[in-house]
User: Fold this.
Amino acid sequence: MNFWLWGAAGLVLALVPVGVVCFRGSTGDRLTGLELASSIVVLALIALAEGFHRNIDMDLPLTLAILGFGSGMVFARFLQRWL
Assistant:
């Protein structure tokens, strides 16, 4: 295992407290947890692609990074009356 794979494992472990916030928090906290989880998953996928030396696998995290912000804004629009 190299440095990138250890970093990806640490990022996956960082999803545990974010998941707790997403399942047990208030509505605003859940939306914030969703945005943070999206960012952590993007970083973990980039670290995995670098760790396995497969540059072709960079397409998925880059697409998720672009679409993650937009999907969070869509959820915020639907949750507008409760926020």
Observations:
- The longest helix spans residues 27-51.
